[in-house]
Amino acid sequence: LCITETCPSCSVTVLSDQFSPNTTSDVAAGMLIPHTYPDTPIHRQKQWFKETFTYLFAISNSAEASEAGIHLVSGWQVFKSVPKEELPFWSDIVLGFRAMSEAELLKFPQHRFGQAFTTLKCDCPSYLLWLEKRLKAAGTQMYTRKVADLWELHSEYDIVVNCTGMGAHQLVGDKQLFPVRGQVLKVHAPWVKQFIRDGDGLTYIYPGIHRVTLGGTREKGSWSLSPDANTTRDILDRCCSLEPSLQGAQDIEVKVGLRPSRLCVRVQREVLSQGGVKLPVVHNYGHGAGGFSVHRGTANEAAHLVGECISALQGSSSRAKL
Ligand SMILES: Cc1cc2nc3c(=O)[nH]c(=O)nc-3n(C[C@H](O)[C@H](O)[C@H](O)COP(=O)(O)OP(=O)(O)OC[C@H]3O[C@@H](n4cnc5c(N)ncnc54)[C@H](O)[C@@H]3O)c2cc1C
Ligand SMILES: O=C([O-])CC(=O)C(=O)O
C-alpha cells in the first residue's frame, strides 16, 4: 500500500500463499506497544513506531475507524519490581504516559510499580481486510501463490519486495530468523474495558472491539501451530490473577502464531545476481513480537528503498516492466 502511495505509476502485484484470516498477523493481539529489537538502533525503532502511531491515530479519528478496526485503548502495564527503564523509548509517543498512582496500584496487590497510558489497538482481521480493500482500489492485483525461489519472479517483475515473515526462513534461507510461538485466547468479556499487561511480557489482557485477547506465551524455537490445552488453562489462570472478573469469560477461542523473530528487522535493499542477470529485492520481514507496532514505519522505509531501486533501474539500460 505504501508503494502504491509513494509511486502511483508502479504496477503492484501481491503474491501470497495465504491471505487473511490465515496469517500470523491475524493471530496477533494488535496492540501498539513496541518490543525492542536489540540490533536495530533505538532512534530507528522510535521513528517506525511514531510513523505507525500517527498513521493509525488518524484512522482511529476518522469515519473509517470501525471498518478498519482501529481504536484507542487505555490501561496499565504493571511490574513486580521497578524496571531499570522507567521511561521506555516510546513513552512520549503513546498518549498520557505516567507512573501509576498508589490508589491505582491497589488493584494489583502483587505488583509494586506501573505505567498508565493510552495507545491504539488493531482488530487484526478487520484491519487486514481494510488494507486489502484499499490495495484493490489502488488497482493492485492479488494472487494466491507460493513462491519457492525469488528468481521465479524475475521474468514477470522488475522489483521483488519480500514481506514473507516467517516464510523468509525457507524462501531466502535466513538462519537468523527464528519462530517464537505464541498462544492467545480470544474471549467474550465485554465488561473489560482497560488493557492490563504484566511488564514481564508474558501475561496480557487486551480488550478489542468484539473480543478480549488474553495472552500469552513466548516459546523460542517452537514451530508447533497446534493449540495446547494446558497452556490455555495457564493463560486463563494468569489473566484471572490480574483481572479476577475474567473467570466469567465465555466463548473461548484459541489461536497460535509464530512470531518471525530476529535480532533486527530486515528492511534492506539487495541486488541478487545470477549469470550476469540482476534482480533487485527489498526485504521487509523479521518483525517478531512487534509487527503491528512498527508496520507502517517499516513499510514507509521499504517503499523508499523501492524508490531507490526504480531510480537505479531507470539509470540502467534494462528494459523496465513498470
Ligand atoms: C500471539 C501473538 C501475538 C502478537 N501480538 C502482537 C501485538 O499485540 N502487537 C504487535 O505489534 N505485534 C504482535 N504480534 C507480532 C505480529 O503478529 C507479527 O510481527 C506480524 O504479524 C508479522 O507480520 P508479517 O506480515 O511479517 O508476517 P505474516 O503475517 O506471517 O505474513 C507473511 C505473509 O507471507 C506469506 N508467505 C510466506 N512465505 C511465502 C512464500 N514463500 N510464498 C508466498 N507467500 C509467502 C504468508 O502466507 C503470509 O501471508 C503478535 C504475534 C503473535 C504470534
Ligand atoms: O507482548 C505483547 O504485549 C503482545 C505481543 O506483542 C505479543 O504477544 O507478541
UniProtKB/TrEMBL annotation:
A GO CC term attached to the entry: peroxisomal matrix
Residues at which D-dopa binds: 204, 259
FAD dependent oxidoreductase domain ranges (all copies): 1-305
Cofactor dependency: FAD
UniProt keyword terms in alphabetical order: Cytoplasm, FAD, Flavoprotein, Oxidoreductase, Peroxisome, Signal
Entry keyword annotation includes Metal-binding: no
Catalysed reaction, written as an equation: D-glutamate + O2 + H2O = 2-oxoglutarate + H2O2 + NH4(+); D-aspartate + O2 + H2O = oxaloacetate + H2O2 + NH4(+)
Name of the protein: D-aspartate oxidase
Organism of provenance: Cyanoderma ruficeps
